Amino acid sequence: MVTIALDGVGVSLGRRPVVRDVSAVLTPGALVGIIGPNGAGKSTLLRAMLGLIASTGSIRIDDVPLSHMARGAVARKVAYLPQGQTLHWPLTVERLVALGRLPHLAPMSRLGDADAVAVERALKRAGVADLRERIATDLSGGERARVLLARALAVEAPGLLADEPLAALDPGHQIDVMELLRAEARGGSLVVTVLHDLTMAARYCDRLVLIDAGTIVADGTPREVLTPERLRAVYGITATIERHGETTMIVPTARAY
């Protein structure tokens, strides 16, 4: 298991502050959704958690300062699924997913039996085992998104940060991915995902962190965070919020002017 603690984290891109004074403790066992409007700083915050961009404040992984950790150590602790990743090399799906094992390999070493098992497990969990011989650059956008998720799962890290994993997926595969992420979290992993679909966030996430203009404006259960007042203030919309047992549906109805 792995925990990420943020204390007063800030990020500037150029001279523009994008993330401002963010503090939170992200713990395993619950699916955490980071939500907010476009440009709120969600993806930037995820990248800062992994040390991929410079930040101020404190970021600690299992109580170790991120700045004190080698890149390989971070990669073995927390797998990362970035958004909109472009594939440049015509690798087979199986070889692409196998790249997820790189954090565990010494330089110039080859995949061993344990790595092969991890790759096979990831292919099946992401539902892409039938694509293993296909060339990844020939896949549809939705197929490619699921293959890249498999690559992240192949790391078998105790933590996973997924940035908009539902992009390009049809509704059925969106459900598959959210159920997989929730199962990973319930199994004891730290799973943090950036989402734009508020209904998916409300249905599947145990905790939501709502960010606006680079700051956290709400942090709690979906019912606590997704209120009509916050949707109006942060997203500038009116919405119908319907609750059917444990399922919450968020239906935007109009711009709030």
From TrEMBL:
GO terms for molecular function: ATP binding; ATP hydrolysis activity. SMART domains: AAA (SM00382). It comes from the Bacteria. SUPFAM superfamilies: P-loop containing nucleoside triphosphate hydrolases. Gene3D superfamilies: P-loop containing nucleotide triphosphate hydrolases. Keywords: ATP-binding, Nucleotide-binding, Translocase, Transport. Residues 4-238 form the ABC transporter domain. The keyword Iron does not apply. PROSITE patterns: ABC_TRANSPORTER_1, ABC_TRANSPORTER_2. Belongs to the ABC transporter superfamily. Part of the ABC transporter complex HmuTUV involved in hemin import. Responsible for energy coupling to the transport system. This is ABC transporter ATP-binding protein.
